[in-house]
Amino acid sequence: MTPGRTDLLEFSIDTGSSPPTKQRPYRVSKAEGDVMEAELQQYLSLGHIRPSTSPWASPVLMIRKPDCGIRFCIDYRRLNAITVKDCYPMPLIDAILDVLGNAKLFSTMDMTSGYWNVQMAKNSVEKTAFTYKYGLYEWLVMPFGLCNAVPAFESLMENVLVDLKWRTCLVYLDDCVVFSHDFPTHLIRLKQVLERFRMAGFKLKMKKCKWGRDQVAFLGHIVTPSGILPNPEKVKAVINVKRPHDLHTVRAFLGLTSYFRRYIPGYAGISAPIERLKQLKGAAFVWSDDWEPAFLQLKRRLIEPPILIYPDFSKRFKLYVDSSKLAVGACLMQTVGGRDRVVAYASKLLVGSEKNWIRKVDGTSEIECWGIVWATRKFRCYLDRQEFDLYTDHKALTWVFNENNRTNLLHDSDPDEVDHVLTNDLNPGDDGQVQVREPSLLMRDLMNEADLDDGNSVQVRESGTLVDGNSGMIPAPGLLEVREHQSVVDLPDSVPLSEHGALRHPAAPSVRVSEEVVEPLVSSPVDEFGLDMLRFVEEQKRTPP
């Protein structure tokens, strides 16, 4: 599908007074050359590139995909190094997800070739020139790989949706989600957003758009009315990672798991052995049995993550904090339906001078005290000027945190970060573990017993593929769970893994239905346009004229 074209932005590259950069083309294999030639012919036919006589030249770089495919890229590193950087801020993903708290319906939209909707400024076209063995070409639309492309495109999207963002929709680059509490409102909001896209000249990739759903994938998470959880497809990538064999793969693995650390209690403590590997500089890298338990435990924690609820600022927060000689951990919770539910987990590894507290006479108290200060800072966006309950397993701190008994450590901290209205309570537990009184809401809590009664049973194939009655086949090797809120495979406490650390699938896993009472999330049939007309009619009947 041909991308749209907007006249709201022309992308320019400011290199100041720097002279042109140029590099010779990289040598490629025959297979890479065939892909390169096919890509170039496609770009020429779409009018995205043209032959060039530019003094600038960046080489084409062919990247191998995980599925053994080949991706066409351009190495703009030298050009980016002399480009004046655009400092337009990117929205925080956690802040985006928190906005979806009262929503019941979601629609996601994906733009067709988002960057290619933006034209290059005439004075910057020559700077995009790239070279390969058949010649020199330059871009007429904004290409991938330029350092300012991301902030420029985010700025464009936010200007298009300037008065709708945060209230009607959320946008992160070319991903947009429209949310609402009821269906009539949802139709109105969809019309507003689609009208803005039409006026801007954007086109949507209909195969990737989801309309009027009660669950959607957005920014690596599954968004539901009850809360958020990791996208199974993203978690699958973590589960199937092989053991690191050098510092680069160590950093890659920690980067993948860190993205989901808000779902993993005690993440810093679990990952501490692997984190220490990053300090090996120049030493030979040899994988040790000391790191294996941490590697496997991080994977197992992501197999069945808790569903994190959305924060409700009309309710009181509960903050559970605990510290150990390795790390501090915190759990922010709220009471929903008479049970404590997790809003987010947080943890931090002790480094540098922080470790010296362990050797002091009163070191345990200082670590526990500092852990509370750190936790209130970490969750400041939720706790600032809010009344909340603080739970600790260190009895001395129930005295320290009285108003007249604050330690120097607390007084040395920023008053805005610790001057909260709180009550403290002793919650005994093992050192280094955040103790919560109620289990968190898990993915199984979204299940409906009625779904199984209707024949929507789940089958697990030997390959790990899940099959259910409505959704069809869900390819999920290495991740035994269902994303359509119907049922979930019951995994044993110790999940067997292969020699590379990937999951082995149990021979006969059992499927069980949660006994907890949760508001049903039943998908309704939709028409060919993706709109649920049955629900719309029912909403109209309940809506006063």
UniProtKB/TrEMBL annotation:
PROSITE patterns on file: RT_POL
Keyword Hydrolase attributed: yes
MF-aspect GO terms: endonuclease activity; hydrolase activity; RNA-directed DNA polymerase activity
Reverse transcriptase domain residues: 44-223
Keywords tagged on the record: Endonuclease, Hydrolase, Nuclease, Nucleotidyltransferase, RNA-directed DNA polymerase, Transferase
Gene3D superfamilies: 3.10.20.370, 3.30.70.270, HIV Type 1 Reverse Transcriptase, subunit A, domain 1
PANTHER family in UniProt: PROTEIN CBG26694, PROTEIN NYNRIN-LIKE
Protein name according to UniProt: Retrovirus-related Pol Polyprotein from transposon 412
Organism of origin: Phytophthora megakarya
Organism classification: Eukaryota, Sar, Stramenopiles, Oomycota, Peronosporomycetes
